[in-house]
Write a structure and sequence with these properties.
With about 425 residues, the protein is mostly beta strands. It has three helices and 31 strands. It has helices at about 80-90, 120-130, 215, and strands at about 5-15, 25-30, 65-75, 95-100, 110-120, 140-145, 155-160, 165-170, 175, 185-195, 200-205, 220-225, 230-235, 240, 250-255, 260, 270, 275-280, 285-290, 305-310, 315-320, 325-330, 350-355, 360-365, 375-380, 385-395, 400, 410, 415, 420-425, 430-434. Strands 4-5-3-6 form a four-stranded antiparallel β-sheet. A four-stranded antiparallel β-sheet has the order 9-8-7-31, with no helix packed on it. The two termini are about 40 Å apart.
């Protein structure tokens, strides 16, 4: 590892990353004292051809597409001598280079960007960046067509074993392997929900031995920032679902914690009784309101317990399922309890999984004597008619709709399929978002 000398650089620093709201250039003196990475992570990007303005003819510098890097400085292309100053910064830091941000849609356009290093993930880059003397001048960004390759139509995020993998659903090609976020000891992953702009993935986390704790029994919802690679805890609850317009997220949770009759001194029950609404249009989720049941359930077998919720295609209402098989529609402007009116549909037998238009996809086990005898059944919510989709999957199947609520993806064990394709995983399916 080579030691890089301490340098002082006066540069116009402006956040060039996607998602930054900064519009003001400031003069900052930057001191960087650090150690170069192993050769395998040294950047191979080449600096762009010399240009004199933002509109000049330019050869795209896309050698580093598909990698994460560290942004050390960003200078507007309209600034006099901006490229020269950016190159001066890069010349003082071994292994760094200058790129043109407009070549990378994942960055804000119109900047000469000094970047350093190639990394497999945002968290790997963040960990290295945190060791700098002045971390404010260093932050990770993805170099590519978008903040995440998931933004491309036909790409899905699949939990394969304990790793997150971006795959092409038509070919099964593994496009990118991300960090094994789901490898925590005693941690289980539940329903996953992807933002429509693919900027963040929300997912439910359950914990082993959760029946001992009120806090852990209800589970938690976590947020994975696909730009930074960082994970934050949103709050208690489970089964996150994001509206098709990307503005809202609903989470199921319990507002009660009851002693378990089987062992009231140690075990607790948290039957789901509430839907929590979050506003996502502000960036990080902000709780907006809650809807609860007229009478809360007292056990996990109580027919009043909430088991599932998902969005109508217009993003103005939720469908909420109770244990008894009754489905209630809850509008964003509704003030009263979830089940105060007549159900939109009733007598649904099975575990609801996904909603596309007026078709609800449920999972049902009609052959308990056979291992793997699960059926995925389509239920028409208008007529009540059922149509079998997939029969006898191997193990419990995962079923989800894409972010537009127009297409279905399903899978079990090592197989994943859509209406037009089927592909295999290397390990086993642990969930997906499309």
């Amino acid at each position: 590892m080579k030691q890089i000398a301490i340098i002082s650089v006066v540069a116009l620093i402006l956040a060039a990353c996607a998602g930054s709201d900064s519009e003001t250039s400031t003069t900052v003196t930057t001191s960087i004292s650090t150690t170069a990475p192993p050769a395998s992570t040294t950047t191979t990007s080449t600096a762009p051809e010399t240009t004199t303005s933002f509109t000049a003819v330019h050869t795209p510098s896309t050698a580093a597409w598909g990698t994460w890097t560290l942004i050390l400085a960003s200078i507007e292309t309209g600034a006099v001598g901006g490229e020269d100053r950016a190159q001066e910064v890069a010349d003082g830091i071994e292994g760094s280079a200058v790129i043109f941000s407009s070549d990378f849609p994942s960055l804000n356009p119109g900047f000469w960007v000094v970047h350093w290093g190639e990394f497999e993930s945002g968290s790997e880059a963040s960990n290295w960046c945190a060791g700098l003397a002045n971390a404010l001048t260093c932050y990770p960004r993805y170099l590519g067509r978008s903040v995440s390759p998931l933004a491309a139509d036909g790409h899905a995020m699949v939990v394969d074993g304990q790793a997150l993998v971006i795959v092409d659903v038509e070919t099964g090609e593994r496009l990118k392997l991300m960090d094994p976020y789901f490898s925590g000891d005693g941690m289980g992953i539940g329903r996953m929900a992807l933002r429509t702009d693919a900027a963040a993935l929300y997912y439910a986390v359950g914990f082993e031995d959760s029946w001992y704790s009120c806090d852990y029994s209800d589970g938690q919802v976590w947020r994975l920032d696909l730009g930074f690679g960082t994970v934050t805890v949103v709050g208690s609850g489970h089964s996150p679902t994001i509206s098709p317009d990307g503005r809202w997220m609903a989470v199921l949770r319990s507002e009660q914690c009851l002693p378990d009759p089987e062992n009231p001194e140690f075990w607790v029950l948290t039957p789901t009784d509430t839907v929590v609404l979050y506003n996502l249009s502000t960036g990080m989720p902000i709780e907006t309101r809650r809807w609860s049941l007229a009478t809360p359930p007292t056990s996990y077998e109580d027919p009043r317990m909430i088991t599932w919720a998902d969005w109508r295609s217009d993003s103005q209402a939720l469908l909420v399922m109770l244990q008894a098989g009754d489905l209630f529609e809850v509008g964003l402007d509704q003030e009263g309890p979830i089940n105060e009116g007549a159900p939109a549909a009733g007598g649904i037998r099975g575990s609801p999984q996904a909603l596309i238009g007026e078709t609800l996809y449920i999972v049902r086990d009609d052959t308990p004597e056979e291992w793997g005898g699960f059926d995925i059944v389509a239920v028409d919510l208008v007529s009540g008619a059922e149509g079998e989709v997939i029969t006898q999957t191997v193990g419990w199947p995962y079923v989800a709709a894409d972010t537009t609520r127009t297409r279905l993806i399903w899978g079990s064990d090592t197989q994943v399929g859509t209406a037009t394709s089927m592909f295999s995983l290397e390990n086993y399916l642990g969930g997906f978002a499309w």
